[in-house]
Amino acid sequence: MKEIGGFFELQLRKGEHYHKGAVQLNTARNCLEYILRAKKYSKIYIPYLDSEVIWEPIKKLGVDYEFYPVDFNLDPIFDKELEKGEVFFYSDTFGIKCLTVDKLVKRFGKQLIVDNTHAFYSPPYPGIDTIYSPRKFFGLPDGAYLYTDTLLDEEFEQDDAMPHMTHLLKRIEYGSASAAYQDFLTYCDSLIGQPVKRMSNLGEALLKSLDYEDLKERQIRNFQYLHAALGKYNQFGYDDFPADTCPLSYMFYSEDMELRKKLIDSKIYVSTYWKATLDLVEKDSAEYKVVNYLLPLPCDHRYEIEDMERIVEVITR
Questions:
Q1: Kind plus residue range of the DSSP H or E element containing 65
Q2: Are 25 and 146 in contact (CB under 8 A)?
Q3: What average pLDDT does range 102-130 have in this prediction?
């Protein structure tokens, strides 16, 4: 029976999920585990250039795997034909490789898993297993979306958001990411070994409270501003992609090893992705250059054009 009265809860906008037709789970890596369990794949091909968290479900389930390289444009270098029971895993890295995804869908069909953790707003292809991680785009305690046509006949426990809230609340309360950074690292560690669970009530409520179209437009605007200002200095070449594509960040290539430090010293926090990849590749590989020299500049919806101007000023000076 619905409660009436009592103390007030957090006042959240009562909207809808952006991905209304997806399975709602707790983490993206567990979406991959769900697929591997449901489809019973015997082997998966994964890129060297990806987060080591995807290794977790593969090793847990004992699925055979093989790495493949990508070129400097982040396109896969792969000339094999897939056998029955094999699947190809590709990440729309930084959310700008939707045209490559389109080619891979035509090539591999249902023997493809699309990792859209960097491409929240990119739509799934019918019948293609697709993973989304809204935590890459929004402040959430948990939550991931999975599109799949094969469901497991299991009832999963629901995640509890409370242990995952400290870093989010501290950032608001103390007004800075640095004040909550250690809590964020603790949170990331807590995700290791998590079983497949349903999305928490709080995660779901937060995701239904967002004005997605406004946030998407702001992020695209910021990306376009950075590209217009920095494109002539950028050694990373952007492929064409649709105008409504919403990249995760603006990738700026620079072999100036001091630039990342200069940005961080200016309180512009630039992540380093995929450090574990460096143990797998040669120093002259595209992956090595991407990890070390491709700086993902923040351009998300939290920021205004004057924030983008500050990033440009630090780089161009």
A1: strand 64-68
A2: yes
A3: 97
Q: What is residue 239's predicted lDDT score, i.e. its pLDDT?
A: 78
**Over the stretch 48-105, which tens digit does the pLDDT of each residue have?**
999 999 999 999 999 999 999 999 999 999 999 999 999 999 999 999 999 999 999 9
Angle at 273 between CA 267 and CA 278, to 5 degrees: 130
Q: Tell me: do 82 and 114 sit in the same domain.
A: yes
34, 126: one domain: yes
Q: Are 212 and 138 in contact (CB under 8 A)?
A: no
Given a cut of 90, whether residue 229 has pLDDT beyond it is yes
CA distance 101 to 110: 13
List all residues 6 or more positions away from 266 whose beta carbon is below 8 Å from its beta carbon. 310, 314
State whether residue 310 is helix, strand or coil.
helix
The contacts of residue 113 (CB under 8 Å, 6+ apart) are 32, 35, 44, 87, 88, 89, 90, 128, 129, 130, 131
CB-count burial class (<10 Å; 0-12, 13-18, 19+) for 17: middle
Domain count, the chain: 2
Report helix angle 166-174 to 181-190, nearest 10.
170
| Number of residues that make up the chain | 317
Per-residue tokens: 112: 């493809």
Range of the domain at 250: 212-316
> Residue 32: phi, psi to the nearest 5?
-65, -45
Considering the domain architecture, whether residues 200 and 256 belong to the same structural domain is answered as no
**What's the rounded Cα separation, in Å, for the pair 240 and 262?**
30
Report residue 242 as tokens.
């649709």
CA distances 91 to 64, 131, 132, Å, are 19, 9, 11
92 within 8 A of 77, measured Cβ to Cβ: no
State whether 29 and 138 are in the same domain: yes
